[in-house]
Amino acid sequence: METTKTTLVHYVVDARASRLTVHAFATGLLSAVGHNPTIGVRNFSGDVNFSPEAIQGSEFKMSIQANSLSVQDDIADKDRREIERLMNEQVLETAKYPEIVYEAPMLSITRMGESLYTTVLDGSLALHGVTRRQPVTARVAVFGTMLRASGDFILKQTDYEIKPISVAGGAIKLKDELKFSFEMVAREEE
């Protein structure tokens, strides 16, 4: 009996065609006048090894330059600069922790349709000097030499020893939970 060998395809994330955003939400007594910032990630790279027929060896790795996060909302430049300064100096402490890394094997790959899959990843996220387990479910589509993945997940800042920002004596602060959303495009490496 002949066995067929399944080949993993290596893809490289195309950062210019991809989008990674972080949504933060205001809380507190004056949260109605507060701002729910949307943060975009500008400088990141990643690799995907993927084969729908073989979970073994299928994996995803991503590296983010922590100081590349920027406010995406339409706000005054002065406010944008202040939020980004606080984010770099007090929240992420980017001088001390310059890189955010996610590495994950794929635990399951389920075919949803022609070239469409759902994958479950159970990886480790290294953020702010803390590494924790972070499961992620992604919808994946493969079109020729291009792979597209999308999804979202929630994480708590305090799990990574980050204290949520608070202003006006706590009357406006950010919730502990952040929502991460991603639309990744990766191209087959030859």
What does this 3D model show about the protein?
- This protein has 190 residues and is mainly beta.
- It has a single domain, classed as Lipid/polyisoprenoid-binding, YceI-like (Lipocalin), CATH 2.40.128.110.
- It has one helix and 14 strands; from the N terminus they run E-E-E-E-E-E-E-H-E-E-E-E-E-E-E.
- The strands form two sheets. Strands 1-5-6-8-9-10-11-14 form an eight-stranded antiparallel beta barrel. Strands 3-13-12 form a three-stranded antiparallel sheet, with no helix packed on it.
- Strand 9 and strand 10 form a beta hairpin.
- It is elongated and about 50 Å long.
- The relative contact order is 0.22.
- This is YceI family protein.
The whole-number mean of residue pLDDT values reads 88
**Low-confidence spans:** none
**Main sheet specs:** 8 strands, antiparallel, barrel
Tally of individual helices: 1
Distance N to C terminus: 31 Å
What is the β-strand count? 14
Task: Return the domain count.
Answer: 1
CATH topology, by name, is Lipocalin
The ordered H/E elements are EEEEEEEHEEEEEEE
Proportion of residues in β-strands: over 45%
Binned, the helix content reads under 10%
Tell me the strand order in the biggest sheet: 1-5-6-8-9-10-11-14
CATH architecture label? Beta Barrel
